[in-house]
Amino acid sequence: MTDIPPGVAVRAEGLAKTFGTHRAVDGVDLDVRTGEIFGILGPNGAGKTTMLRMLATLLAIDGGRAEIFGVDVARDPHVIRQLVGVTGQYASVDEHLTARENLWLFGRLQGLPGARARSVGDDLLDRFGLLDAADKPIAQFSGGMRRRLDLAASLITRPPLIFLDEPTTGLDPRTRGQMWETIRGLVADGCTVLLTTQYLDEADQLSDRVAVIDHGRKVAEGTPDELKTTVGDSTLQLLLADPADVPAAVGVVRRVLGSDPVLSPERGRLNVALDQADLAGEVLIALRTAGVPIASVSVAKPSLDEVFLALTGHETDGDDNEEDR
Ligand SMILES: Nc1ncnc2c1ncn2[C@@H]1O[C@H](COP(=O)(O)OP(=O)(O)O)[C@@H](O)[C@H]1O
Ligand SMILES: [Mg+2]
Questions:
Q1: pLDDT tens digits, residue range 261-279?
Q2: Domain extents for the chain?
Q3: Deepest of 135, 164, 221, 301, by most Cβ within 10 A of its Cβ?
Q4: Which residues are listed as membrane-spanning (predicted)?
């Protein structure tokens, strides 16, 4: 990969985009360091794709500014396009061509001589485990194979920075795991990766740092561990025997800890952030004294799900597009 000195890969200040009257991206600052995987985590419609498209020069920036490796995105779009490999949420490959033909075509479109386009393409097919399927039309590919081919296509020019827009949405768990390995491999080869995801576990597993985006705004940023710490060292997860007791339980928690529990949409379930795990006992005793029966209880390290719920007051609603393309 191209040698890029350590430092800042992406810097955005007050990035904004308005569609009609809707502010899809509403003043976001970003600081992505070279060599890291930076995750933009947010539910459907949060503005993730719009941000990536602006940074990739595919969409005009309405407000704020952005630099990639020190190059201004709005002023020098042609330089930016040399620096960034973009992989779309919707694969950009041609259905009627084979995998090998697709990569060759991408290489040619990027200005590589024919023989070079073929050898780079074959290297990538090999690296992504697609050599056996190289001469099959894409129409016969599974969702996971398409994603890998799409990623391979974005790597033809060996860009130092890769944008991955929801690289595993709709993939089955095994294929997701393979994709994660592939993404980690990119970083091991010296790439910087900016990815979007609506999966909390994906942000947790892959990212060095995460920005949580909701309604076009950044609501939190940090390492996955730092984000988990924002909701306390540990979480007391309670399932009440009777969901009608939720208001009483909230009152008890507020009295004992001076803070409110996070209500889960699942009826009767509440998560209580604890500074110290041993405060769990006091909460349980107070609930019993108040006559609130509990169906199940556990103490866990907070998940990013709880972080999201605590930060935004709502769940990630990202389970509505499970299609496997
Ligand atoms: N081209 C467009 N025209 C109008 N509205 C758009 C357009 N693209 C995105 N939006 C709206 O902007 C918001 C953010 O969209 P998007 O960036 O695609 O979110 P995400 O990628 O996080 O799901 C959504 O409300 C979406 O409907
Ligand atoms: Mg999107």
A1: 888 778 899 988 888 878 9
A2: 8-226, 232-301
A3: 164
A4: none
The CATH class, in words, for 232-301 is alpha beta
Q: What's the mean pLDDT when you consider all of the chain?
A: 87
pLDDT for position 74: 96
Ligand 1 centroid–CA 45 distance in Å is: 6
Which ligand lies nearest the alpha carbon of 47? 1
CA–CA dist 202, 128 (Å, integer): 20
Torsion angle of the four alpha carbons 222, 224, 226, 232, in this order, in degrees rounded to the nearest 10: 140
Q: How far is residue 32 CA from its own chain's centroid? A: 14
Give the rounded percent of residues in the chain with a pLDDT score beyond 70.
93
Q: Closest ligand to 318 CA? A: 1
Output the ligand 1 site: residues, CB below 6 A: 19, 24, 42, 44-50
More confident residue, 307 or 134: 134
Whether the model pTM is above 0.70 = yes
C-alpha 179/C-alpha 128 separation (Å) is 9
Q: Is the confidence at residue 302, as pLDDT, over 70?
A: yes
**Residues with C-beta atoms within 5 A of ion ligand 2:** 48-49
What is the rounded CA–CA span in Å between residue 52 and residue 128? 24
Q: Quick one: how far is CA 307 from the chain centroid? A: 15
Under DSSP, the state recorded for 137 is B
Gap between the Cα atoms of 113 and 239, Å rounded:
63
Kindly compute the dihedral angle of the four CA atoms of residues 170, 175, 178, 180, in this order, to the nearest 10 degrees: 20
Decide if domain 8-226 falls under CATH 3.40.50.300.
yes
* First vs last C-alpha separation in the chain: 30
CA of 88 relative to ligand 2 center, distance in Å: 9
